[in-house]
């Protein structure tokens, strides 16, 4: 039995019963029932109207509450109320702010709604008027010329505004109702106050006109209208007593009176006629309002199945119309998602290598780019496994981990070495993900890869950087560490130029770099004269150099080194008519290779602190002097933590496009009791040795979150492997992420000493958790040490902070420029933003800006400060 037949049967039965019963009741109690029914229905309609008005008032209050908490609106009102000078009006500032406010409050209502929002300053002067319906009013803001107010809008460009300031807001403290121009107006006004200071007023008016009232009437028993004269109507309800406004209920009683007179004679005939009529009307109604709309719904659903979406045509604004309206929104979102997915699929197909596999790993699909890159036709690879592309160098362990991950339902990402049909090597950055059926069971896998062969080849250009110092062309610190591991009986000499920073400060970094280059040549020359080529020479970092020897007698070696130091200190370096003499410190270690670097460093520090020329490491030196210094600083750090003198400083990171301070790096400092600010150089290593480092990290994180909780800028915090590998610290950070969700979305985690990462699984898990909360990841000092593109891909970085040693030499060393250019090109292809550190002057800034680097950081813009800009 169809829905139509069922409906007709129910209509006949129900109408028959209703009409017979109603006829009998009407026959006996018609007049009383009529009057009582009308009264109840009028009361019902009146409540609905008043509830609707109450809802309007609540909506107005909600809008006002939101406005009171809107920082942008508060900022603009504060500016206008406290700083606007009407006699000397500043158009550029206040017109911009008022126009911005006019556009900004658009979000508080929809176009076409009968709402008018007005803002006034604390002296009751009108600032803006925003109408969401042109029939009510124009939208404009008020500006001044020599104290005379004018209005400005897109429609009425400039006209004298006859504002009546004596009338002021026209409102009391509570809601105010009035009837004007055939509109029932509901007004709400509120004074905007912040920190006990008045910033102005907001006034929201809702205009209920005859058209809106007609819409309300569709849900009422009787149509209603407004009237100021109740004497003309029988059924009225007072709406506002003060102004004599009434709701008029249009009840036609003549129809009932006529029926009452004819009821006895025509009751049975009328019932039959009414049943037939009602049946006919109901049939038409059901057909037009139910059957036909459902058929339209069927057509819309079929159009989606055929991938030709057609919205449901809405004829009536009834319940079914509302359902279809909601359905259209759902279908529209679904179709948008489907279209976005198709567009995304096309984009992925065009720019990536795409391959699908069944549950057994057999290839079921490969896109055109995959076939072109692999040099196989689609027919040659369908049904095969990925082994057809596997390069012999790829270890079995790589594929075992890959399959273990995706079979568990996890995503796998990594770099794979493949080979084409003609045995060419292809490097891909690949992501494999399971494909699920409707029951959430894995039915296959999809692999989306990016060809990074060119980038991997360019990585060779950075290998030089891994082992050589670009300024002096000598081996660097990383090469020294590697050589120490392969030397059985090492002798390590560290030579430092004392107070070299004074040369940089007085003559500039460029001049200082030339001095370092000249000194390295003198140093090498002296060692060649003394030891031939039986040594290795390194620039250890900054103004420190290292010489590695092996299997030499200590008593014979020491006099030779002293003689070399004497020759070097007597050497005068002449540059640009300036004569430079250098004072040196030297530390020597004869310890085993695992302790050579550490002990040579201790010897050098003891040498510098004791103002000696040369110190050879011994256990006595280490225990009596180095420990004494450590104990001193350990005590200072402990006391600074207890007295809350560990504070964050902030150095801005500038957007190179608009020179705005969009980000800040957080840097730890200790402020001593006398106000002196201490750099981490003096206390960070000691803090790590005395297990106070994690406390410092927690303090910096706590204070940074507090500083930036209401700031609309990103901020970055440095984390080391010691931080990430500590479970207590990870739990502390996760708690911060969960309890400060908005602030966390502006946090950038800078990974420092990233070359020391051993457990990539742990780091990847931490990065995934942080990113899921909205954090971003930056790699610090990229381009130095063991920095390479492989771990950059693994760490899923959002930002690369290019090492300062590259940036400061970018205009003087071609190698630095090439390395930076390579990093920038790589970052652009990977969608990673770049930040240049050590921007010390305008020349460096211009160069890195021309290279397309996104952000800058350095003393050219600002040193680290205790407060934000």
From TrEMBL:
<feature type="domain" description="EAL">
    <location>
        <begin position="630"/>
        <end position="869"/>
    </location>
</feature>
<feature type="domain" description="GGDEF">
    <location>
        <begin position="488"/>
        <end position="619"/>
    </location>
</feature>
<dbReference type="InterPro" id="IPR050706">
    <property type="entry name" value="Cyclic-di-GMP_PDE-like"/>
</dbReference>
<keyword id="KW-0175">Coiled coil</keyword>
<dbReference type="InterPro" id="IPR035965">
    <property type="entry name" value="PAS-like_dom_sf"/>
</dbReference>
<dbReference type="InterPro" id="IPR000700">
    <property type="entry name" value="PAS-assoc_C"/>
</dbReference>
<feature type="coiled-coil region">
    <location>
        <begin position="39"/>
        <end position="73"/>
    </location>
</feature>
<dbReference type="InterPro" id="IPR035919">
    <property type="entry name" value="EAL_sf"/>
</dbReference>
<dbReference type="InterPro" id="IPR001610">
    <property type="entry name" value="PAC"/>
</dbReference>
<keyword id="KW-0812">Transmembrane</keyword>
<feature type="domain" description="PAC">
    <location>
        <begin position="410"/>
        <end position="464"/>
    </location>
</feature>
<dbReference type="Pfam" id="PF00563">
    <property type="entry name" value="EAL"/>
</dbReference>
<feature type="transmembrane region" description="Helical">
    <location>
        <begin position="263"/>
        <end position="286"/>
    </location>
</feature>
<keyword id="KW-0472">Membrane</keyword>
<dbReference type="Pfam" id="PF13426">
    <property type="entry name" value="PAS_9"/>
</dbReference>
<feature type="transmembrane region" description="Helical">
    <location>
        <begin position="7"/>
        <end position="30"/>
    </location>
</feature>
<dbReference type="InterPro" id="IPR001633">
    <property type="entry name" value="EAL_dom"/>
</dbReference>
<dbReference type="InterPro" id="IPR000014">
    <property type="entry name" value="PAS"/>
</dbReference>
<keyword id="KW-1133">Transmembrane helix</keyword>
<feature type="domain" description="PAS">
    <location>
        <begin position="340"/>
        <end position="409"/>
    </location>
</feature>
<protein>
    <submittedName>
        <fullName>EAL domain-containing protein</fullName>
    </submittedName>
</protein>
<dbReference type="InterPro" id="IPR029787">
    <property type="entry name" value="Nucleotide_cyclase"/>
</dbReference>
<dbReference type="Pfam" id="PF00990">
    <property type="entry name" value="GGDEF"/>
</dbReference>
<dbReference type="InterPro" id="IPR000160">
    <property type="entry name" value="GGDEF_dom"/>
</dbReference>
<dbReference type="InterPro" id="IPR043128">
    <property type="entry name" value="Rev_trsase/Diguanyl_cyclase"/>
</dbReference>
């Amino acid at each position: 039995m169809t829905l139509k037949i069922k409906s007709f049967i129910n209509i006949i039965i129900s109408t028959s019963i209703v009409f017979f019963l109603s006829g009998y009741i009407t026959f006996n109690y018609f007049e009383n029932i009529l009057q009582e029914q009308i009264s109840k229905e009028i009361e019902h309609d009146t409540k609905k109207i008043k509830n609707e008005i109450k809802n309007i008032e609540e909506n107005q209050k909600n809008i006002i509450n939101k406005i009171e908490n809107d920082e942008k609106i508060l900022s603009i009102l504060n500016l206008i109320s406290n700083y606007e000078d009407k006699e000397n009006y500043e158009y550029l500032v206040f017109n911009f702010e008022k126009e911005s406010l006019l556009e900004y409050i658009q979000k508080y209502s929809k176009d076409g709604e009968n709402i008018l929002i007005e803002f006034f300053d604390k002296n009751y002067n009108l600032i803006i008027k925003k109408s969401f319906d042109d029939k009510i009013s124009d939208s404009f803001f008020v500006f001044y010329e020599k104290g005379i107010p004018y209005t400005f809008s897109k429609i009425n460009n400039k006209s004298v505004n006859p504002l009546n300031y004596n009338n002021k807001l026209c409102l009391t403290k509570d809601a105010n109702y009035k009837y004007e121009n055939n509109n029932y107006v509901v007004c709400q006004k509120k004074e905007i106050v912040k920190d006990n200071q008045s910033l102005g007023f907001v006034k929201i008016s809702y205009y209920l006109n005859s058209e809106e009232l007609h819409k309300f009437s569709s849900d009422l028993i009787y149509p209603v209208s407004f009237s100021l004269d109740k004497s003309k109507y029988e059924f009225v309800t007072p709406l506002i007593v003060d102004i004599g406004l009434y709701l008029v209920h249009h009840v036609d009683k003549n129809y009932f009176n006529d029926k009452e007179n004819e009821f006895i004679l025509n009751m049975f005939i009328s019932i039959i006629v009414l049943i037939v009529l009602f049946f006919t009307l109901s049939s038409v109604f059901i057909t037009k309002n139910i059957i036909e709309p459902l058929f339209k719904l069927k057509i819309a659903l079929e159009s989606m199945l055929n991938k030709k979406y057609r919205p449901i045509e809405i004829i009536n604004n009834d319940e079914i119309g509302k359902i279809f309206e909601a359905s259209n929104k759902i279908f529209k979102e679904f179709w948008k998602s489907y279209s976005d997915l198709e567009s995304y699929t096309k984009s992925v197909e065009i720019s990536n290598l795409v391959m699908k596999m069944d549950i057994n790993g057999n290839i079921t699909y490969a896109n055109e780019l995959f076939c072109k890159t692999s040099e196989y036709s689609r027919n040659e690879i369908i049904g095969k496994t990925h082994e057809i592309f596997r390069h012999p160098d790829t270890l079995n362990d790589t594929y075992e981990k890959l399959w273990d991950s995706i079979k568990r339902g996890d995503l796998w990402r990594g770099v794979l070495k493949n080979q084409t049909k003609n045995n060419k090597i292809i490097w891909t950055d690949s992501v494999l993900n399971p494909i699920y059926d409707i029951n959430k069971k894995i039915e296959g896998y999809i692999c989306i890869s990016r060809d990074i062969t060119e980038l991997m080849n360019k990585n060779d250009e950075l290998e030089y950087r891994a082992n050589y110092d670009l300024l002096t062309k000598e081996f660097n610190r990383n090469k020294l560490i590697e050589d120490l591991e392969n030397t059985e009986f090492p002798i390590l000499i560290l030579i430092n130029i004392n107070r070299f920073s004074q040369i940089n400060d007085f003559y500039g970094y460029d001049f200082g770099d030339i001095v370092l280059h000249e000194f390295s040549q003198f140093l090498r020359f002296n060692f060649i004269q003394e030891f031939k080529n039986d040594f290795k020479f390194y620039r250890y970092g900054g103004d420190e150099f290292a010489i590695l020897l092996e299997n030499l007698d200590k008593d014979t070696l020491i006099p030779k080194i002293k003689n070399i130091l004497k020759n070097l200190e007597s050497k005068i370096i002449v540059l640009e008519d300036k004569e430079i003499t250098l004072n040196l410190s030297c530390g020597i270690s004869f310890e085993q290779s695992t302790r050579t670097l550490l002990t040579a460093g201790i010897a050098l520090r003891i040498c510098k602190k004791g103002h000696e020329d040369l110190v050879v490491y011994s256990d006595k030196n280490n225990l009596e002097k180095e420990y004494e210094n450590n104990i001193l600083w350990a005590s200072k750090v402990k006391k600074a933590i207890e007295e809350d003198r560990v504070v964050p400083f902030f150095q801005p990171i500038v957007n190179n496009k608009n020179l705005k301070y969009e980000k800040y790096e957080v840097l730890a400092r200790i402020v001593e009791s006398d106000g002196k600010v201490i750099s981490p150089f003096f206390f960070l290593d000691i803090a790590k040795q005395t297990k106070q480092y994690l406390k410092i990290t927690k303090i910096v994180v706590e204070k940074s979150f507090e500083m930036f909780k209401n700031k609309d800028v990103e901020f970055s915090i440095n984390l080391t492997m010691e931080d990430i590998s500590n479970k207590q610290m990870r739990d502390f950070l996760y708690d911060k992420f969960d309890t400060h969700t908005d602030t966390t979305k502006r946090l950038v985690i800078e990974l420092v000493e990233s070359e020391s990462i051993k457990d990539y699984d742990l780091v990847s898990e931490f990065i995934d958790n942080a990113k899921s909360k909205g954090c971003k990841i930056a790699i610090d000092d990229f381009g130095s040490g063991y920095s390479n593109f492989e771990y950059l891909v693994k760490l899923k970085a959002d930002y690369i902070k290019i090492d300062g040693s590259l940036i400061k030499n970018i205009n003087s060393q071609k190698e630095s420029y090439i390395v930076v250019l390579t990093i920038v090109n790589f970052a652009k292809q990977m969608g990673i933003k770049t930040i240049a550190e050590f921007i010390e002057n305008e020349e460096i800034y211009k160069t890195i800006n021309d290279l397309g680097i996104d952000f800058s950081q350095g003393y050219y813009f600002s040193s680290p400060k205790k407060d934000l800009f």
